[in-house]
From TrEMBL:
SUPFAM superfamilies: Actin-like ATPase domain (SSF53067). This is Actin-related protein 4. Belongs to the actin family. ARP4 subfamily. Keywords: Chromatin regulator, Cytoplasm, Developmental protein, Nucleus. The keyword NADP does not apply. One of its GO terms (biological process) is regulation of transcription by RNA polymerase II. Residues 44-66 are annotated as: Disordered. The keyword Nucleus applies. GO terms for cellular component: cytoplasm; NuA4 histone acetyltransferase complex; SWI/SNF complex.
Length: 435
């Protein structure tokens, strides 16, 4: 199909937290940026009146064209009046295609500086992707971007390939959710996939609320500036921007709290309880505005929400999420539930090949704690082995790396869904080409 070396494929993994894109055959993605967008509605006043009177298609199309979108770390880092921060992905499924196209444009044209017409595209997709979503993706890729060929691969399969296995149980702790998916011989066993709404962003929110409850206010970067009084001595001057939206303020705070979480949090060795962790030594962390905060038991409590979602009830300010958490199951329960739904013959192999991937999986001690909990709950005969790459970059980008390996294999080249096949059979043919 493709002459192998001349044209390299492009691999794009649009996650709920970050978008990763780069060339197949490389060991890390070239472009990594948040998969949220800043949006400013530039609607005139008369537009708003019209849309009230005839809330039909005309006013919708009018209001859409007036939306200005900002993509990428730099554009989002710059504060603008009335800029809302929106996410195009809800529970792993695309909710707003207009925004997704903007993200793809940014990744391909601004970051990788390529013309999509010249490169085959390998896109990673969540296990829960529906047929309509896949067909829509194929249509946009072939009709708008005119790509020569396309392949959609499941996240879990790519993670499995990245670690060189055809059969494994992939535990993907992403930003928006946590998914446990068994992969057998390169295919996801759909009936046994377990998901939970608790991901990295949820833990970040828990930490933010917990800090605010202790009277620590997280000042976003745009809300202050440093003024030098004497050489080497600075004074923080608060700035006030009344037109900043709540969602942008929250986004800016999450960036900071996410960093605190990555620096100081670690999964506790035993299930968290207030008494045994009450006199733990504090860990200092310096905020961007120069104040140093001390974080104690929260370092262990927040990560333990992954194992015991009911802990959310003890975090002040998270009342709205208690329902989400009460329906969610802990990580070890999800793993066991998923394996029990699989065929008896492959259960042993799945227990001995549990792969951790995703940004949240880089948390210290997560692997050890999961292994320990599973050993307590599984039958004696099963050999439980939780594997995770020693390298944080590889864990974070394992889906992308799997895609990079797959798209650069010689034997894979005849699997592409080509443009001529799309023109001949239509978008629904993608179900046959990319199982």
């Amino acid at each position: 199909m493709y002459g192998g070396d001349e044209v390299s494929a492009i691999v794009v993994d649009l996650g709920s937290h970050t978008c990763k894109a780069g060339y197949a055959g490389e060991d890390a993605p070239k472009a990594v940026f948040p998969s949220v967008l800043g949006s400013i509605d530039e609607m005139e006043v008369d537009d708003a009146d019209n849309s009230d009177k005839n809330s039909g298609t005309a006013s919708d199309s009018k209001s859409k064209s007036k939306r200005k979108l900002y993509v990428g770390t730099q554009d989002l880092g710059f504060r603008r009046d009335h800029m809302e921060v929106l996410s195009p992905v809800k529970d792993g499924i695309v909710a707003d295609w207009d925004m997704v196209e903007n993200i793809w444009d940014h990744a391909l044209r601004k970051c990788l500086l390529i013309d999509p017409k010249e490169h085959p595209m390998l896109l990673a997709e969540p296990c829960s992707n529906t047929q309509q979503q896949r067909e829509k993706t194929a249509e946009i890729m072939f009709e708008k971007y005119q790509v020569p060929a396309l392949f959609l691969a499941k996240n879990a399969v790519l993670t499995s390939f990245a670690s060189g296995r055809a059969t494994s149980l992939v535990v993907d702790c992403g930003g928006g959710s946590t998914t446990v998916a068994p992969v057998h011989d390169g295919y996801v066993l759909q009936k046994a996939v377990a998901t939970s709404p608790i991901g990295g962003d949820f833990l970040t929110d828990c930490l933010l609320k917990s800090l605010e409850d202790k009277g620590i206010s997280i000042k976003p970067r745009y809300a202050f500036k440093r003024k030098e009084i004497r050489a080497g001595e600075f004074q923080i001057v608060d700035l006030d921007f009344p037109n900043t939206t709540e969602s942008y303020k929250l986004y800016s705070q999450r960036v900071i709290v996410g960093d605190i979480k990555e620096c100081v949090c670690r999964a506790p060795d035993t299930p968290y309880d207030d008494t045994s962790y009450s006199n733990i030594p504090m860990t200092p962390y310096e905020l961007p505005d120069g104040q140093t905060i001390e974080i104690g038991a929260d370092r262990f409590k927040i990560p333990d929400v992954l194992f015991n979602p009911s802990l959310v009830q003890t975090i002040p300010g998270m009342e709205s999420s208690v329902e989400t958490a009460s329906s969610a199951r802990g990580l070890p329960q999800m793993v066991i539930e998923s394996i029990n739904k699989c065929d008896v013959d492959i259960r042993r192999e799945l227990f001995s090949g549990i792969l951790l991937s995703g940004g949240t999986a880089s948390m210290q001690q997560l692997k050890e704690r999961l292994e320990k909990d599973l050993l307590e709950e599984t039958p004696q005969a099963a050999r439980v082995k939780v594997l995770s790459s020693g390298n944080a970059t590889e864990r974070r980008f394992s889906v992308w790396i799997g895609g990079s390996i797959l798209a650069s294999l010689g034997s894979f080249q005849q699997m592409w869904f080509s443009k001529s096949e799309f023109e001949e059979h239509g978008a629904s043919y993608i179900q046959r080409k990319c199982p």
